[in-house]
Design a protein that fits this description.
Elements lengths: L4 H6 L4 H20 L9 H8 L4 H11 L4 E4 L6 H6 L3 E4 L8 H5 L8 H11 L4 H5 L2 E5 L3 H10 L5 E4 L7 H22 L5 H24 L9 H11 L4 H21 L9 E7 L8 H7 L3 E7 L4 H4 L10 H12 L11 H13 L4 E7 L3 H16 L4 E6 L6 H14 L2
Parallel strand pairs: 1-2, 1-3, 3-4, 5-6, 5-7, 7-8
Helix pairs in contact: 7-9, 10-16, 11-13, 14-19, 17-18
Bound molecules: iron/sulfur cluster (SF4) (2 copies).
Length: about 425
């Protein structure tokens, strides 16, 4: 990635510290990803993206900025990309998934903040991630307390708009969310200098729906008895979907899905027969957090589905494409986004129903409920998740972890025991 040094310099990055990150990532990726056998050829695209992770997409974004486009950095699957795209803006995900950035976050945040928040703040303040430098404006949301307060700190360093996500799903909350999306459209128009029109928003809704459909095709392939793709590879595709151009993302995912469907027809599997099938549920796994997938898939099981924001919550449910007024479109967006089931909602029975449904659809042998340390909402909701799974006769293991490797051995022992218990 050395070709990009000038670009990083122009972005005001801390080159020395960033260099240390660039040195560890290829080894980590090689150990976790390139050691797998019989991977789908289509994964070559995502391998390439990772090999140039701080170069290729950032340089595309900078080029787009030179042509007058604005980049919006987001942290949550409730922020509607469609509105930004309708105004010719670009969205990039900003959630930090590496321990590398955590100490930077701890300089300003309490230590008992979840690692995702600490890494996201650290990546910005330590100037070690180009995406955090490039974004013209950050879009936050008041989903959990940690994020809400962290955005106030980030707002001292970068323009920030925070969306007020309702925390219940009554009809009046959905109305309120539609109104909040309309307010967001105003911010987007001001930032980009472009109007959000019915036609433009309709086009954008179709673009993002197509991306959702393509991601779903890959996930559907994971329902097959013979698994054509590892959980690790599916996770990588999903993590990069937050950064990539949505049209290219759909194209590459559809290409991968074609290959996976052919593999299913040919009876090709990346795991030996009888490999136990695991559904992961819980807090998001931002790139490059591959820790748990790697542990599970080197312990004799396969991850077949993620009920997470880096998983089914990102692509399930489409936005109605038939609306003919902005008011109708904002309502349609609000309805779709409110079908997401984040633990910040109360009550959140929809998530429990989703987990049981997905466990059946993906024919899983067991569920691992994973919680990022200090995420109190998912931790607390684990009570209901684990009770419902037990009632449904589905084995479940609750795990709490962070981005460090210090608990990897201990986690592996627990995961292996769980898999063995599945019989
Ligand atoms: S877990 Fe909740 S707060 Fe985090 S990205 Fe998902 S919806 Fe947003
Ligand atoms: S994992 Fe939990 S604490 Fe961390 S950002 Fe997401 S909702 Fe907030």
């Amino acid at each position: 990635m050395s070709d990009y040094v000038k670009m990083w310099e122009d972005l005001g990055m801390d080159l020395e510290t960033h260099d240390a990150l660039c040195q560890v990532l290829p080894t980590a990726f090689g150990d976790v990803y390139l050691s797998q056998e019989n991977r789908p050829e289509g994964m070559g695209f995502w391998d390439f993206v990772v090999s140039e992770i701080h170069g290729i997409r950032p340089s595309e974004l900078i080029e787009a900025q030179k042509n007058g486009q604005k980049v919006f950095g987001t942290f949550c699957v409730y922020v509607p990309d469609e509105v930004v795209i309708a105004a010719n803006g670009i969205v990039t995900g900003l959630c930090g998934g590496s321990q590398f950035w955590v100490p930077g976050g701890e300089k300003v945040l309490p230590k008992n903040t979840c690692p995702l928040i600490k890494a996201s703040v650290g990546a910005r303040l330590d100037r070690t991630c180009p995406f955090f430098r490039i974004a013209d404006i950050y879009v936050g949301e008041n989903t959990c307390d940690g994020k809400k307060k962290a955005y106030e700190i980030l707002a001292e360093d970068v323009p920030m708009h925070v969306m007020d996500v309702p925390q219940m799903k009554r009809p009046e909350d959905i109305e309120r969310w539609a109104h909040e999306i309309e307010i967001f459209a105003g911010v987007v128009e001001e930032q980009t200098g472009n109007k959000v029109t019915v036609e433009k928003l309709n086009e954008a809704i179709k673009i993002i729906n197509n991306k959702r459909k393509a991601l779903k095709r890959v996930y559907d392939a994971r329902k097959a008895d013979k698994l054509p793709i590892s959980g690790k590879d599916a996770l990588l595709m999903m993590q990069i979907a937050f950064f990539d151009d949505p049209v290219r993302c759909a194209e590459m995912c559809n290409k991968l899905a074609d290959e996976l469907e052919q593999r299913i027809a040919d009876g090709v599997s990346v795991f030996p027969e009888g490999t136990k099938r695991i559904l992961l549920t819980g807090t998001p796994l931002a790139i490059p957090n591959w820790k748990l997938h790697h542990i599970i898939e080197t312990s004799g099981a396969a991850v077949v589905c993620e009920e997470m924001c880096t998983g089914t919550r990102y692509f399930e449910n489409l936005v109605d494409e038939e609306q003919t007024t902005l008011e109708g479109q904002y309502k349609a967006l609000a309805e779709r986004y409110m079908k997401n089931n984040c633990a910040c909602f109360t009550p959140n029975e929809g998530r429990i129903d989703d987990i049981i449904r997905l466990a059946k659809e993906y024919k899983v042998d067991g569920v691992i409920d994973v919680n990022l340390k200090f995420c109190s909402i998912y931790d607390t909701e684990g009570f209901f998740v684990e009770r419902a799974l037990k009632e449904a006769g589905i084995p479940v293991l609750g795990i709490e972890t962070d981005y460090t490797d210090s608990d990897a051995e201990q986690l592996k022992t627990r995961v292996e025991a769980f898999i063995e218990m599945l019989g």
